[in-house]
Amino acid sequence: MSLFVLALFACTPDTPPPAPTADDTGTPEEPPPVEQPAGFLTGELCLVRTVFETSCTTGCHSSIVAGGGLDLQTNPWAALVNRPSGTPGAPQLVVPGDSLGSFLFLKMGNFLEANQGEVMPPQGQLGGAALQVVKDWIDNGAANDCDISPPGGDPPPPPPPPPPPDPDPDPDPDPQPTDPDPQPTDPDPPPPTSPHPVGYSSPDQHGVAANLQLDGDCRSCHGANFEGGTGMSCDTCHQVGWRTDCTFCHGGQDNQSGAPPQDVDGTTAPNLISFPDHTAHIQAGYGCSECHYTPTDYLTNGHVFGDVTPGYGEVNYAAGLSYQATYYLGTCSNAYCHGNGQGPNGTVTAGSGPVRCASCHYKQNSTPAEWNQMSGRHRLHLQENGVTCSNCHASTVDAAGQIVGAAYHLNGTPDVASVDITIVGTTCDGACHGFNHNNRGW
Prior knowledge:
It is a single chain. The protein has 442 residues and is α+β, with helices and mostly antiparallel strands. Among the domains are: 3-139, no CATH class; 364-441, no CATH class. The protein has twelve helices and six strands. It has helices spanning 3-8, 22-25, 44-55, 76-80, 103-109, 128-139, 203-211, 219-222, 278-283, 357-360, 368-371, 378-382, and strands at 326-328, 331-335, 346-349, 422-424, 427-432, 435-441. The strands form two sheets. The protein has a three-stranded antiparallel sheet, with no helix packed on it. A three-stranded antiparallel sheet has the order 4-5-6, with no helix packed on it. A hairpin with a 2-residue loop joins strand 5 and strand 6. The longest helix has 12 residues, at 44-55. It is globular and about 110 Å long.
């Protein structure tokens, strides 16, 4: 196994080569992150960080467990860009502007020579969408463009522990006489003193503090799985299954997906919640993974604990249909799902009103000039009297223009199905709208 395998992905104590400096290699100093509003992670490196968190940092290359001395969680830019791989004859880990010349991408994409080890991560090659995120970041210059500063600066430090009792208290100036008939003492010792203030057990106090990580890592007292440690078990009060119940912390107002209304800080006001259009997306049948990395439970690394932006749901399209999309202050851009069906070219802003067919692509009552901008022979068919979208897309839309097959709408594939003709590939046979088709291309 190559040294790079050990240094980049395997959890071993080997140490990667020391970082080059500007003085001895000419490598430029690390540029400052591009200015972005705190909490809204829109840079390409933010997407790459999410790929690392889901595939590399858990158990191997986090800030806590830096296998091989490589931490891909704290500052992956400094750990990778212009850094030697340590494998003889192999290129640097990340060469800005050249993904095929970057050993990181070669390892993740399994573009390896015989002596360069195994594909990484060790659980198998990354999916196409996640791999594309890494490739795009490198080819676009490997910018250090991910602002991970929490709003308002760093969270406050945890409260100090209570002072220890005075080992030598002053004697009582007016001692009471000794009880000649003392009562037996309670054999059970008093419960330990809580480091938290009175009222902290209320869900609206410790729940928000836990979700936003305001008082440090709760696991240090309550155990790795919250089953108890020096502090009590959270299962003493919380309902069975709370760790995997999304609505235990957020959502639950108008659906059970966990999507707001109700942010993790308890906000429910429509004009204040993070993304008021969550409900419209969930009701349309789209899962959380279209726009976010979806954790398994409360303890998933990077969800609450190990999250670089506590309290903010980072937008990450890497696993969705619109993996090339970007998000900024409520606006999605370069989105396939809000585009015209011919590429990632859609833009939509939250709260801008109902989205209808013509919001994304032209429709039956558009003009011939507009139809001509659609793919294939849309104009030729739609200008025929009586032809509707359902004539060729019956599995998706009905004659009234209503979506009847949500699974076929916005699924990344042009689904062509008709009740009148036989469709094979991109050709059709049969009689429709007064014409006989024989292996006619569309």
